[in-house]
Amino acid sequence: MMRQYLCNHNSHISVIHLCSGSEITVCGSDFTAQESPCEEHDNGLMDNIVEDTSDATATNASDASDRFTYVGDDCRPARAWQTTSRPTCNVVHEIDWMNFDVHSSRRNSAYSDATARLTFLNRGGTRIVWKANGSSTERIGFVLKTLRMDKAFSEIMLEYQRIDALAMDELTSSTNVVDVYGYCGQTVMNEIGIGDLHRAEKFFSSHGNYTSLRKLQLAQDVANAVADLQEIDKEMGPLILHRDIGPANMLIMPDGRMKLNDFNGAQMMYWDYANNHMCGYRRTKLCGEDGRRADARSPEECLGNVLSEKSDTYSIGTILFFILTNDRIYHSHEDDRKFSSDNALVREVIRKGQEPRLPSKIEESNDTAIGAIRTAMRQALIHDPVERPTARSIAT
Question: Is 149 left (phi over 0), alpha (psi -120 to 50) or beta?
Answer without folding.
Answer: alpha
